[in-house]
Structure formats: C-alpha cells, structure tokens
Amino acid sequence: MLIDLNRTCNVVGEADGPDSLLNLLSTTPCDLLITDFSMPGNQHSDGLKMLGKVRRCYPALPIILVTMFSNAPTLKAAFAEGVMAIIAKGASAKELPMAIKSVSEGRRFTSESLRASLLQANAAVASGPAVLSAKEHEVVRMLANGMTVSEIAGYFKRSVSTISKQKNMAMQRLGISTDVGLFAYARENGMAH
C-alpha cells in the first residue's frame, strides 16, 4: 500500500518466505527487494543466511530491510551482507519512501531510531580498543582473512578447542552472535585484507 500510495515503484511480486522469495527472484526481474528477516521464529542467523543467498545469486540487487530488530551486531551483519537500507518497522510509513529514494540514488539509508543503537555500538567499540586480548585479536584477524579454526590451531600449535574458545570469547566480548557479524567487525576495524 505504501509503495502504491507513493507511486515510487511498481510491486512486481510478493513472497511469504525465503523459498518463495528465491523462486520469485528467479522468474521475475526486479530493481529492488524490500524484505524482513521473515523467518519462522525470527532467528537472526536464518535471516542473514537468506540475505547472503540473495546477495550471492543477485549481487547487483539493492535490498531494503524492514525489521523490528534493533540490536547493533545483527544490523551491522545485515549491512555486511550487502543490505542498502534498514528501516525500523514502526517508522516504515515515513521512512520507506525516503529509503527507496536513497537506494535508487545509490546511497545507504538507516532508520533514525536504529542509527542511535549503531552509533552507541560503534562508540562502545571505539572507547574500548583493547576489548580483545592479543590472542583473541589474532584469532579473529586470521579467521577474517580466510583461515579455518583448525588451520589457526596448527599455526599456533594449540588445540582446536582452545582456538574455538578464543573465538567464542571474542564474539561474547564484542556482543556478536554470528560469523558474518564477526567478519563485519574485522573488516570495519581494518583486520581483514
């Protein structure tokens, strides 16, 4: 309704889940995807997997995410998966037309309400550069540059479980719950080539 009212785009298809979305994208050409995490049980990682799959199959398709989540690591991970705009569900009436305009001009857009939690998260990271121990930092850096946990264990001559613990500890300290989020953090902090 919002899209029709604003006459900014024509809706060419609607999907009710990841499978029907991927089927629809394979048969219906479109210029823009507006989606939720839209998974049963709203599991963040599943939503990110779906976004990752869309990104791999349709690398040039701009994506606008409309979500009720406001936790910063999930939002950052969504941006890392190539999402161009993130809008809080409650603000979509006002902000969806603005996001569509931004994205069509090749610019990112973030809901005003979500910007605050992203800025806070960035400030927390900035105010605590020594959040990770040197070993954890090294493990995250190596993971972000494509090494596996077992390769890192071999490199340091340590057990796989020790390296796994360091990785999990790093994720816990950073408040990150997915590998995608961890890689996004590493990229943003200059740890990935």
Descriptive account of the structure:
- The chain is α/β, with parallel strands linked by helices and 193 residues long.
- The protein folds into 2 domains: 2-124, Response regulator (Rossmann fold), CATH 3.40.50; 129-188, Arc Repressor Mutant, subunit A (Orthogonal Bundle), CATH 1.10.10.10.
- Helix content is 58%, strand content 7%.
- The protein has helices spanning 2-6, 18-27, 44-57, 72-80, 92-104, 112-127, 134-144, 149-156, 160-174, 179-188, and strands at residues 33-35, 63-67, 85-88, 109-110.
- It has a 4-stranded parallel beta sheet.
- The longest helix has 16 residues, at 112-127.
- The chain is elongated, with a radius of gyration of 18 Å.
- The model is unreliable at 41-45 (pLDDT under 50).
- It holds the Pfam family GerE.
- The modification 4-aspartylphosphate is found at residue 36.
- InterPro entries: NreC/VraR/RcsB-like_REC, Sig_transdc_resp-reg_receiver, Tscrpt_reg_LuxR_C, WalR-like.
- This is Response regulator transcription factor.
Specify the structural class: alpha/beta
Instruction: Detail the poorly predicted runs.
Output: 41-45
Question: Which strand order does the major sheet show?
Answer: 1-2-3-4
Order of helices and strands: HHEHEHEHEHHHHH
Q: Could you please say which CATH topology of the largest domain applies here?
A: Rossmann fold
CATH architecture of the largest domain: 3-Layer(aba) Sandwich
The CATH C-level name of the largest domain is: Alpha Beta
Total beta-strand segments: 4
CATH H-level name of the largest domain... which superfamily?
Response regulator
Number of helices: 10
**Mind telling me the C-alpha Rg?**
18 Å
Q: Tell me the count of domains.
A: 2
Question: What is the share of helical residues?
Answer: 55-70%
- Terminal Cα span: 44 Å
The major pleated sheet works out as: 4 strands, parallel
Strand content: 5-15%
Shape: elongated
